[in-house]
Amino acid sequence: MRTHPVQTTLLNCGISNEVLNTYKERVERFHFELENSDDMTGWIDYPLMDHEQLFREIESLKEEISGNADVFVVIGIGGSFLGARAVQEALTPYFGARENGTEVKYVGHHMSGAYLQQLLHYLDDKEIYINVVSKSGSTMETALAFRVLRQYMENRYGDDAAQRIIVTTDPEKSPLKRIAEKNGYRHFAVPPDIGGRYSVFTPVGLLPIAVAGINIRSFMEGARNAALELKESDLTLNHAYQYAVIRNKLYNEGYSVEVLASFEPALKQFHEWWKQLFGESEGKEGRGIFPTCLTFSTDLHAIGQFIQEGSPILFETLLHFQETEGDYIVPFDQRNEDGLNYLAGRSFNEINATSKQGTALAHAEGGVPVIQLEMKKLDEYHLGYLMYFFMKACAMSAKLIEVNPFDQPGVEAYKRKMLELLKNPK
Amino acid sequence: MRTHPVQTTLLNCGISNEVLNTYKERVERFHFELENSDDMTGWIDYPLMDHEQLFREIESLKEEISGNADVFVVIGIGGSFLGARAVQEALTPYFGARENGTEVKYVGHHMSGAYLQQLLHYLDDKEIYINVVSKSGSTMETALAFRVLRQYMENRYGDDAAQRIIVTTDPEKSPLKRIAEKNGYRHFAVPPDIGGRYSVFTPVGLLPIAVAGINIRSFMEGARNAALELKESDLTLNHAYQYAVIRNKLYNEGYSVEVLASFEPALKQFHEWWKQLFGESEGKEGRGIFPTCLTFSTDLHAIGQFIQEGSPILFETLLHFQETEGDYIVPFDQRNEDGLNYLAGRSFNEINATSKQGTALAHAEGGVPVIQLEMKKLDEYHLGYLMYFFMKACAMSAKLIEVNPFDQPGVEAYKRKMLELLKNPK
């Protein structure tokens, strides 16, 4: 088997050739259904298309923003910000922005009045650009925050505000598009056949990622290679489909919760993106694996007890990056009062990798099915590959439980109730 | 019924008097078992005891730190930092520290080399104090980070480092206690009969909370009132026990996952504390409700789809604070291009509360059992009350599924495996 950037190791939930054979035909059929469908499947070939002009436009805008803003405010919710934020936080230092990037802040992803008030206060002594992202152009949280931020920009910059407001929305149906045209805001199109949770490789994700100082060409190169390699219809050669099949087999055996656990806290927002992708794609018609995420070893000292010995409803997917930007060596200490000199000279990342091995062994012995996804490095290329890998696996997973991976009818329920209550206050 | 600070509203999972009667006797028995036990139940009466001397010691140290440090670094994992961080993040502005508080950073809660390296770089131009928190004094993550930070302090401050290092640990058995005495570090005791996840009201939580500029007396007043009111053995009068009973009833009906959802992003770390409390107390012997948390309305546009229409394995506990520090009024906009003028003049918090109502209705109609916990204000007093409320409810919950609420045997499994691998590297 070739060496894929995502190495899937099946610890104690390996699937036999017999099992693979029972899935082979169905996977192939669903593969061709996905490939030949034109219902919200624009994301499948998007990374294979020529985006040179878009890259240049984004890169030039990034330079303009670098020179004229301290903070780039992204206004969006759900698929309109989760992908961008996942990549930005995974590849930005823990303290402060990248040297070649602009600080990115988010708003419009909830309705906290305290947060909004404090954000505006924070922005008062900084130069800013804003990017409102909404495919429909009418999502309440985003629209309300945009109303506030837009007036704030006009108060601060007067006629120059238009230059600092960027709109990412549907090219045809969105009211935001009309607002942009009427007021002279620059705007990017969200391809109509790509849904929010599959949109990180479009301008929805690429503009904030680029502004943060991250190389979007490497990121897209990872996605492109994944799109090529995972076009394989043969289950025995397609790692993403194998992951989908293992999940399905475990689901059928009664495991109702998947824990995605990673070992680098920079991946917390990546977890949020992953939860939306799988939860919103699969959770319908009374079906689906409930997706939840943990950061180890932090959570081994918290919810770890439950995984090891609690209700046997979980399986675990361990996501590990062998290298990160930066590391630290355990120092020697003459006093050795803590008895840890035996670790002196080893790196924290090395010990972290051992903690991952220990976790896999302990949980597997405890009877928890453990899937391991091993990536070489936490960088643009591998994140791009991994995100596409999960998208492809997710679409196949949803097909295997016979739900539509691309709709979200249940999200409307709370919106309707909220609107009724807002329009008819007691 | 009296008005408790935690108002429990049972939407569609109310329990009838018949059900309450079937639990009444068991709850009373377990109540007296807890009250009369001396096995790790020190937390039950701790807020009722006189801590005046401890408060003064902590307040005086907080003044010293305010005057001499820009950053207070807490080194701890699991119960040694989750409670402090929950309160600190809930009651600190989203951007920057409190006016009367010192910035608090955390380390030793995972083994990311990148994070450690970047934290030290961040600290380089700031004055610092450090607080290492570990009951046993030998937890690997914490001990390794303390080794690094201690040398860092000695390099920066020479002999004065000892004045800037504070130890919180077991008063007798811990090797950290010996290190503190030998090197002249000030130290606080973790009461031996209080476990990590029940320790937020001890110096483990109180010192970092005070240093962040939060009023620990109001916080403890909330806990004290909860401890008094929830000493009630009668299930029909004890809201914490009612919450425990509803959970147990739902668990017995096959709901295996509890989603705690709140409407203020400042509560994200509070969620982490809550997950440890319930997960580690209940998840053993193949039993327990899997605890997970969401922030609404952010997650209504992500995992909300799953809750509304996915596998029917979840029940939901909505946690809502009516008031927060700060809010924002939706402005009128002459152009009304977004059509939202009908909301002008209303506050974001008001709309957020409506979103909560809409969510409860939508999810209940979708067949999800919804419990509502309503708090008056997100402040010291109510957080203190709420945390004690959850602790009491959790102990009773664990009793109801007949597991020990105060041990965590499964956490050792991964530690053992990791140590084996570290001591015998391939």
Quaternary structure state of the chains depicted: homodimer
CATH superfamily of the largest domain in chain A: Glucose-6-phosphate isomerase like protein, domain 1
Q: Could you say how many structural domains of chain A there are in total?
A: 2
CATH topology of the largest domain in chain A: Rossmann fold
The major pleated sheet of chain A works out as: 5 strands, mixed
Large-scale geometry of chain A:
globular
Which CATH-level-2 architecture of the largest domain in chain A?
A: 3-Layer(aba) Sandwich
Gyration radius of chain A, in Å:
23 Å
Low-confidence runs of at least 5 consecutive residues of chain A: none
The largest chain-to-chain contact, stated as pair and per-chain residue counts, equals:
A-B, 121 and 121 residues
Adjacency order of strands in the biggest sheet of chain A: 1-10-9-7-8
Fraction in beta strands of chain A: 5-15%
Q: What is the typical, i.e. mean, pLDDT of chain A?
A: 94
Topology (elements, then pairings):
Two copies of one chain form a homodimer.
Chain A: E1 7-10, H1 17-36, H2 42-45, H3 52-68, E2 71-75, H4 82-90, E3 103-107, H5 113-123, E4 128-134, H6 140-157, E5 165-169, H7 175-183, E6 186-189, H8 203-211, H9 216-229, H10 239-252, E7 257-262, H11 268-282, E8 290-295, H12 304-309, E9 314-323, H13 348-365, E10 370-377, H14 380-400, H15 411-423
Helix pairs in contact in A: 1-14, 3-8, 4-8, 4-11, 9-14, 10-14, 11-14
Organism (chains A, B): Ureibacillus terrenus
Pfam family, one (chains A, B): PGI
Catalytic activity (chains A, B): alpha-D-glucose 6-phosphate = beta-D-fructose 6-phosphate
